[in-house]
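Hey, sorry to bother you again with one of my protein questions. I've been staring at a protein lately and its backbone has me curious. I owe you a coffee for this, so here goes:
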Amino acid sequence: MQKEGNKELDNVSENLPHGVAITWGLVKEPQRGPKRELSIPMIVDAAIAIADRDGLSAVSMSRVAGSLGHTAMSLYRYIPSKDDLLLLMQEAVSNVAFPPKVGADDWREHMRIFVWSTTRIYRDHPWFADIPISGAPITPNSLRFVDWALGGMKTFRVSGYVKMSIILLLSNYARASGILQRDMDRAFQSGTTPGEFSAFDYSAALKQLVTPERFPNLYPIVMAGEYTGENEEYNDAGNDIEFGLERILDGIEQYLHGNEGGEPEE
């Protein structure tokens, strides 16, 4: 039975991109050559360290190999291409620890955790968003995100399609929010002040330049100091992100109230 099971897994791996097969443990590490000097996790960790420090453009097979004291050719025995390496880097940083339990009835809190956990990856690893989305998630850690989000929807009387659409909506918001937080961090690290980033430092000038004739709708908001948030703190975009997330959750809740004809999952 075991042999048959292995054959089935072999068939599965043949139908997956090589990098994806590696994430599922369906590809054996090379046995020839010096043993235990390198491993796939070791290579991926080295690549992540370079990307965290110097950006995604600094990651190359030769740079990663050099940081480990090996040649690029030795890396190719473990990871056949840079595309595979990038996929494995994404998978590694997506290994997020979710809370073991969230109240069964508190689906909104479940979704908040899903969004903020996703957003945090972009902030902790600024290069994460620089890798283009190439398709639906099919690696273990990315599917853990989907599975965990679905766990908060067990009482939803909607189809699986609708649940996946909700996850896509929240994922897109988390991605945009994460990129915003990342860009703010980069701006501050380069010397931009919070007041410059928020345009607070230019509030007086804007009140002179934004006239009611040219900007009739924006004018009262600028004059009230609400455009630059003269009475707010600007060390984080968290308040704006939280506001947007809550309105999205309001919309989902309203949608659910209008679609209560089905039965929740067991």
Q: What stands out?
A: The radius of gyration is 24 Å. Confidence is low (pLDDT under 50) at residues 1-5. Residues 45 and 256 are 42 Å apart (CA to CA). The chain is about 60% helix and 0% strand.
